[in-house]
Write a structure and sequence with these properties.
The structure is a homodimer. Chain A is of the alpha+beta class. The first copy, chain A, is 51% helix and 12% strand. The termini of chain A are far apart. At the A-B interface, helix 1, strand 1 and helix 2 of A face helix 1, strand 1 and helix 2 of B. Strand 1 of chain A pairs antiparallel with strand 1 of chain B. The structure holds a DNA duplex.
Chain lengths: 83, 83
DNA sequence: CTAACTATAATTAGTGT
DNA sequence: CACACTAATTATAGTTA
């Protein structure tokens, strides 16, 4: 995305992939924070990666739980067949 | 972010805010998709906004449920006091 | 391995239709 | 309203230390 266009598939080289992951992980959460702040949005992001033993929960555990519960309630009330 | 630097607070004008939300919502999910594809990452994003009656669940309901369950199991096993 | 730098690609605020 | 355009900002691949 900068010195070269991104090729839209898994980055084969492990070192490159790890570095890219770190940068993009930061970038994604920054974008998420901006969307929440600039517009009136409630959101959460949960990320699992091979580079960390624990999931990254954004913005925090409390919001993630609250948001997921609302999602589950919505899906149930809408009688969606997803459970 | 383009013709003007972004001011990091709620966009007061409702029309501007709605337009910005639409653009940034698309942009965020694109970045999320890229992170998943380029690096080996499992993730989900749930977004609530005043502009839609239903939450946006990315990449889909099944992944969101799976990811959230893993998060809950992790938190429980780690004996975190978050429930 | 990490972190800083920088050239270039990608995103997007403002604008026009 | 939605979409296309584009100037300007922001993100980041590759590089250097």
């Amino acid at each position: 995305m900068s010195r070269k266009k991104v090729i839209f598939s898994l980055i084969e080289n492990e070192t490159d992939r790890k570095v890219s992951h770190k940068k993009r992980h930061i970038g994604l959460l920054k974008k998420a924070q901006e969307l929440m702040t600039l517009c009136e949005v409630e959101m959460d992001v949960i990320i699992y990666s091979p580079y960390s033993n624990e999931p990254k929960v954004f913005p925090n555990h409390g919001v993630a739980i609250s948001t997921f519960r609302k999602f589950k309630e919505f899906a149930t009330s809408e009688n969606k067949k997803i459970w």
